[in-house]
Design goal:
The complex is a heterodimer. Chain A is mainly alpha-helical. Chain A is 74% helix and 0% strand. The relative contact order of chain A is 0.16. By secondary structure, chain B is mainly alpha-helical. Chain B has a domain at 45-61 and 83-305: MetI-like (MetI-like fold, Orthogonal Bundle), CATH 1.10.3720.10. Chain B has helices at 2-5, 13-16, 18-25, 28-49, 51-54, 90-126, 128-142, 146-158, 164-195, 198-205, 210-222, 226-249, 259-271, 276-303, 310-324, 339-343, 345-355; strands spanning 63-64, 67-68. In chain B, strand 1 and strand 2 (67-68) form a beta hairpin. Classes of the chains: A mainly alpha, B mainly alpha. Chains A and B meet through helix 3, helix 8, helix 9, helix 12 and helix 14 of A and helix 4, helix 7, helix 8, helix 12 and helix 13 of B.
Chain lengths: 363, 356
């Protein structure tokens, strides 16, 4: 019975043949194979997105459908090259992508890559903060629930996790906004920073776009506080969903490890219960969290789209929603493909970390 | 373990009805969760069926005999949940919204099952190049944020359509494509496993045609885990529909009531302290997802002796569980891991793992 089922990296076993000896040079080889696997993944996603988006129509018809006459429409389509065979357009698109060109937006006529550099840091910050929330809330609660299995504490934790899952991020966001920003006025309603803080950061010689770093650069604690207070509600809204996932993951795995022989052995040796939980049961349960985090990145990115729209957090998701609103489907497709690349890269990094921690993954 | 999950022939009839059996099997908290979920689900379905009778107004109604409803009116006797910025009655739209939600669930899940199961059976049983391509493609799709894919698809499918069926089909279609990989993975994994079973081999020896083997022997056994995925997918369908609506791909208010659309319109209300336009449609989503999730969760736990209520299982399944639990922390999410809720991962893992 194989003990290792790396669920998220299902491609890995296909390419990397199981090796009897998975030590020493195994890691370097795994790294290489796993890295090379990024490309087919991206290629497939690009292909799927392209054909799904094109087979039933072109961006111009979709954007202008109904508003323009058929002749005007045909003219526009011809000008943009959408009247040529699909396969030609596809190959052209691939060639374009290979040179790092993700296309230009229709409405603002900016390169899609520029959108990444402008809005990417905001999304990264949001995802980072929400991961902190998820860890800080999910892991301890999961441990707690597992230890008190089938008791009231466990029941409450599990119901909480289900509720966190059932509340859509944007609804959670609206509620948080209503209570903490509008009624209690504790935290700002929306945005990444107040106008004055943003102005101070504008003057910085080497702005990073990561507001937290920029705020530290200004050396003004008020700016930092302002930036952080803006991040609280979005991070909580997005983080709680993931916290629920972590909670359940930790719970299930710790229950599993608590039942193992080595925990029994440790207990019989007189190891304290708290140490038992921390060292013996909790550690091995962390590995699946790291692997599952790869999948969570995809979920978090989707969640970021909704969170950013709710809180006017000017990141990739926010801008994606704006392009959706203005029916700029070239931009949407570009951003989606870009996000596909990000997802593939993160999955790679997560898999490498998992392999680094647990040699069994390497095959 | 398989014995506990499949109905034995000697059982009483009432044990063979799927959900009833599980309710009887469950204890304590698990039973509470299952029953609560079922009751909420019942309310949801009843609301959808009897919406025309329950709802005080139509979903696109802005005025009655006494004149217009007025916009953003706080809850009152005439409008218990208030009115929206567009002048619709919130309560009515919440109730009518159940119909849209149910329609989307049914269409999306049916389509996904049909396509996913067919492809999974084919790929798993016959293998070959098509199998390899499908696995690679679906794995790539599977790792991708499903909402983004749904967005791309809804652009394609709807392209500005906003009538009821156009909107429902757009939403359901987008959700379907996202779900197909899940069904495909589960069914394919099960099919590959079942193909090696002795009864399939003996059927082959007896000269049964492939078609018969696939439908009679493989299909009936491979679809055992489907109910769990269906419940989880249904809740995901609701969330995706609402998210699409929230991002502006909703169904127009004159065509049908859709909670995500209402929340989208309620965004600016919240900033000015108007709570009723956001709260009630949002609660409707939470309620529905909660109902489906509670049922799905409980069914999942009950299908897995490791997670079933400890007391009842301790004696009977303890030993079985011991041999099947991978010691030292498995690297998969593990049964009941919420990944299952997000992407169905748990179940194919579960499906394979349990049988080892």
């Amino acid at each position: 019975m194989s003990t290792v089922d790396t669920a998220p990296s299902s491609e890995a076993p296909a390419a990397a043949r199981p090796r009897p000896k998975a030590t020493g040079g195994g890691f370097g080889r795994y790294l290489l194979v796993r890295f090379l696997l990024i490309f087919p993944t991206i290629f497939i996603l690009v292909t799927v997105v392209f054909f799904l988006a094109r087979t039933t129509g072109d961006p111009i018809t979709a954007a202008q459908g109904g508003r323009l006459g058929p002749e005007q429409l045909a003219e526009l389509r011809a000008a943009a090259g959408y009247d040529r065979p699909l396969i030609v357009q596809y190959l052209e698109y691939l060639a374009q992508l290979a040179t790092g060109d993700f296309g230009r937006t229709m409405t603002t006529n900016r390169p899609v890559v520029e959108i990444l550099t402008t809005y990417g840091p905001a999304t990264f910050e949001l995802v980072f903060y929400s991961l902190i929330v998820a860890f800080a809330v999910g892991v301890p609660l999961g441990l707690y629930a597992a230890y008190h299995r089938d008791k009231a504490q466990d029941a409450i934790a599990r119901v909480l996790a289900i509720i966190w899952y059932a509340v859509p991020i944007f609804f959670a966001g609206l509620l948080l906004k209503l209570v903490f920003a509008v009624w209690l006025k504790w935290l700002p309603v929306a945005g990444r920073a107040s106008v004055s803080a943003e102005l101070q950061m504008q003057t910085l010689p080497n702005r990073t776009g990561f507001y937290t770093i920029d705020a530290i650069q200004t050396g003004n604690p008020e700016v930092l506080l302002d930036v952080l207070s803006h991040a609280v509600l979005p991070a909580v809204a997005l983080g709680l969903l993931t916290a629920g996932i972590f909670l359940r993951l930790v719970r299930t795995n710790v229950i599993g490890t608590l039942a193992t022989d080595y925990v029994d052995a440790a207990r019989s040796r007189g190891v304290a219960e708290s140490r038992l939980l921390r060292k013996h049961a909790y550690r091995p349960a962390l590995i699946p969290i790291i692997t599952v985090m790869g999948l969570q990145i995809a979920l978090l990115l989707a969640g970021a789209v909704l969170t950013e729209t709710t809180f006017e957090w000017k990141g990739l998701g926010f801008i994606l929603a704006e392009f959706l609103e203005s029916r700029d489907f070239v931009a949407v497709q570009g951003i989606v493909v870009l996000l596909a690349v990000i997802v593939a890269l993160t999955n790679f990094i997560v898999d490498v970390i998992a392999a680094f921690i647990d040699p069994r993954v390497r095959y | 373990m398989a014995v506990t999950a499949t109905a034995r022939p000697g059982r009483r009839w009432r044990d063979r009805i799927p959900v009833v059996h599980q309710v009887r099997q469950s204890v304590g908290l698990q039973r509470g969760m299952l029953v609560a979920g079922l009751l909420m689900l019942l309310v949801f379905v009843l609301c959808a069926i009897f919406a025309p009778l329950i709802a005080p107004y139509g979903f696109a109604q802005r005025a009655d005999a006494d004149g217009g409803f007025g916009t953003q009116q706080p809850p009152s006797a005439a409008h218990p949940f208030g009115t929206t910025v567009g002048g619709y009655d919130v309560l009515s739209r919440v109730i009518w919204g159940t119909q849209t939600a149910i329609l989307v669930i049914i269409v999306a899940v049916l389509l996904a099952i049909f396509i996913g199961v067919a492809l999974g059976l084919y790929a798993g049983y016959f293998g070959g190049w098509l199998d390899r391509i499908l696995v690679v493609v679906f794995d790539a799709i599977y790792a991708f944020p499903s909402l983004l894919l749904a967005i791309v698809l809804s652009i394609v499918i709807s392209g500005g359509q906003s009538n009821l069926w156009g909107g429902v089909l757009a939403a359901a279609g987008s959700i379907t494509v996202v779900f197909i990989p899940q069904y495909f993975r589960v069914i394919r994994a099960e099919t590959v496993r079942i193909k090696a079973e002795a009864y399939v081999e003996s059927a082959k020896v007896l000269g049964a045609p492939n078609r018969r083997i696939v439908f009679r022997h493989v299909f009936r056994n491979a679809t055992r885990t489907l109910p769990l995925i269906i419940t989880l997918n249904s809740s995901e369908a609701i969330l995706t529909l609402a998210a699409l609506g929230f991002l502006g791909f909703g169904i127009e208010p004159t065509a049908a009531a859709e909670w995500g659309y209402d929340l989208n319109k309620a965004q600016s209300d919240v900033t000015s302290g108007i709570w009723w336009t956001a709260l009630f449609p949002g609660l409707a989503i939470v309620f529905t997802v909660l109902a489906i999730t509670l049922v799905g969760e409980s069914l999942n736990d009950l299908a897995d002796p490791r997670l079933r209520g400890r007391r009842r299982v301790a004696q009977s399944a303890g030993e079985v569980a011991e041999t099947s639990v991978v010691p030292g922390g498995t690297l998969d999410a593990g049964p009941g891991g919420l990944t299952g809720l997000e992407d169905g991962e748990t179940f194919d893992e579960h499906g394979i793992e349990v049988k080892r």
